[in-house]
Description:
The structure holds three protein chains of three kinds. Chain B is an all-alpha fold.
Amino acid sequence: MDSGIKGAPLAAATASGAAGGAPFIRIEDVSKSFGSFQAVRNVSLQITKGEIFALLGGSGCGKTTLLRMLAGFETPTSGRIFIDGQDMTGIPAYERPVNMMFQSYALFPHMSVEKNIGYGLKHDRMTDAQRKDRVREMLDLVQLTPFAHRKPHQISGGQRQRVALARALARQPKLLLLDEPLAALDKKLREHTQFELTNIQHKTGVTFVVVTHDQEEAMILSDRMAVMDKGRVMQVGSPTDIYEFPDSRFVAGFIGSITFFEARVRSVSGATALVEVPAMQTCVTARAVPGLAEGALVTLALRPEKITLSRARPEAANAFSGVVHDLGYFGKDSLYKIALPDGTTVSVNSVNARRSGESGRVAVWEDAVWLSFEPDAAILLTA
Amino acid sequence: MSGMEDTAAAPATRPRRTGWLSLWFNRRGWADITIATPFLWLVVFFLLPFLIVAAMSFALRTSTSPPFSFGTDGHLLSLQNYARLLTDDLYIRSLATSLMNAAVATVVCLLIGYPMALALTRVSRSARNILLMLVILPFWTSFLLRVYAWIGLFGTNSWFNRGLTAIWNALAPADWALHSIQMMNTNFAVVLVMVYSYLPFMVLPLYANLEKLDLTLNEAAMDLGSRPWRVFLDVTLPLSMPGIIAGGLLVFIPVSGELVIPGLVGNPSQPMIGRVISDEFASAHDWPMASAVAVALLLLLVVPMMLYTHFEAKAQEKKAMEP
Amino acid sequence: MNRRPTFLLTVLCFGFAFLYVPIVSMMVFSFNSSRLATIWGGFSTKWYGKLLENDQILAAAKLSVEIALISATLSTILGTMAGIALARFRRFRGRMMLSGMVTSPLIMPDVITGISLLIFFIMLKEYTGWPAQRGFTTVTLAHISISLTYVTTVIQSRLSQADLSIEEAAMDLGSRPWQVMKDITLPIIAPAILSGWLLAFTISLDDVVVTSFATGPGTTTLPILIWSKVKLGVTPDINALATIIVAVVAVAVLVTGIAVNRAERRRDRDARLAYQANE
């Protein structure tokens, strides 16, 4: 995914086209309201076969409702959902070629690991031997063969998660839904599981739709993601698209940390724009985006790791100065909070590339410093 | 910060009482009293009377006052009462009637109570509180009067009896037409009133159990291809087993020793075991025999009770193993 | 999952009809002017008037309430102690025995409890001369014994749900164990104590089997009186009495229920507001 070089993608249309192939899942103008509350508003999405697609958003953004509509637990108030060309309207959960891994895993406490995994196969037409083979295969896939006869309360959290995964995959669904798949695991296990999930997805080729509130999880797991807010899809794209080329303040602020500056467009020449930023007391150049008009008010956004910190005034064109207000040392890097003359605080990440004691720091509290960034690094937002 | 220093600087002004009584009280006296008071009470007013009854069951009836004695037939402990219990038709029949009525009442309670409890978990939260209150409400009113209410309905002239008769006459062949249905003094009446009186005891534990069930398990089963009825059989029913057992015992045990309901609406020629115990004692003045029947009934009830505690212990164990 | 559980709701309605039709029918017939209790003869409140003139019933009701007040209070004290002992003192000699004695009356049919208490009272009189005559005292003692179990169960289950760490916090702040009990535990379980008391009160007011064994000549509680009247058949004045009892209980339960509901809702709302304020 190197689309970053080509310039900002045009959200949904470009992004889904980029992945190639006909859309496997089509969500067409779907809305869902509970009483007067509109959980999902006019969402349209296209998901390609075999990809891991993430629905990312804060609590109450509608991502879980959307997932439950895919599973068949909720009926859309309006709009349609197609899976592999088949209209899912009116098809109950138990007849959909879709399986779900629940956030709580929802393992049946009175059944063994084996029985849990084999449960969904009861309804398929297959011989007992085939069924057994399939269960064995799934146990093997998630490396739980030694625990086949244990009950869910007799295995660890990570193992439970794998049982839930195996159970959902056993019926060879066309689409696997994962509701916050890593939320219940501790930090160390999460990292391991993230890679395992992608591995299993590659092995099985099943399309995954993952719901998560954790941006890092979405970034690592997904091929593409949709960022949602208040029932709407704000932007669709690859993790790089979303991180480096957000097209709204909401998306830019939701993913990673960022500092926003009010700015006014001075001039636009080809791929670059000159904008005046009052907080920086200077004019800076930034990559132009469509829809910039001279004199228009825009937002300039800067991510902390894209800013360079120095004691002396740097050569770079985009430079401004401030005072170190606070700093935090995280080992591999340090986070600086720089106060600008007008009171704006800018976050700056600086990698601790060299080993040095406290005296070796670029700057400490109350030091006057210079900040600079490449024209490519700044994000101009018109929305 | 300075506040902390102030506190640290202040001298410890906690009053010290050194009287041996308050020392004892603080150390363990209060705990001892808390344990010993109910303990002694229960020993005197529960255990002792029960032990007397248990001992009495091995005595023999005499015409003295009090009307019993130990060792009159040569043995200190006589098994004669228990022998009679096994041979005399009266005891076996009444026990069979009791257990039969209790079993039927329990099953009917379950058949009505289970869907009721399940329905209670599916209605909105505000409606649920009101409906639960309505389930409990009859329990707070007089038990006796609730039985009495049915006596009115059973009467041959009551709207209830006439209505049922009309339905019967409409459905049954003309030859079987009835003027009224004999309901008073039948086992039907006994079971019906038992179901009526003990239904809340079935609904409440079942509701408590069903309400705790994780509904995502139902969704998971449905997601894996089960139709609603299948979901019920595979998930809800097995997981509500502890509730079924608790409710079943809460109905079965008191019902099998029931005295009031068969006494008021039952068939006097088909006594239940509670009546037999009470008659042996009050009318026949055979205290030892009454005691033997009581002990036998208790033994019969202890078996299901032990099953229950076994299930409870298993459930607790499971919970404890949950991380 | 948007299906309406039609079958379940039908059974629910049927169940409630089953629970309430007999009571409602009885209440309706209490306003029947006919002497025949099951045939409607016009509206009348005369049976209520007759009831109020019936000294026997009034005396029995007064006696029942007195016994219920005393036995509920004493069994609540004893039951709270037993509940605390079982829920908070992990290990003590006789723990198994105490818990056994507390729970076994639950599976003891009333007849057996009644007979064993009666034999016990008779034997006690035989050897100590007390109680000279069965009556108020023996009935009260019997009622304490039967309701003790229920109070203990209520208290124990409330205590086992309560957060132990706040008691530990009090201890950490310097309270002795019994001060913790007094300052922290008892206030926390106050609602449970109240419901235990109400339960004991109702059990005492309602009991007929154990009372019939423990009572003696001259001590006729309301249930005993109703029992002897009901055995003779249905009479309109009993309908009136039942209506009054049901009405009183219904109002009491509804008022408590609404109060509890409202308190719960207020707490929920406060929590939500506090949460929003912190957002």
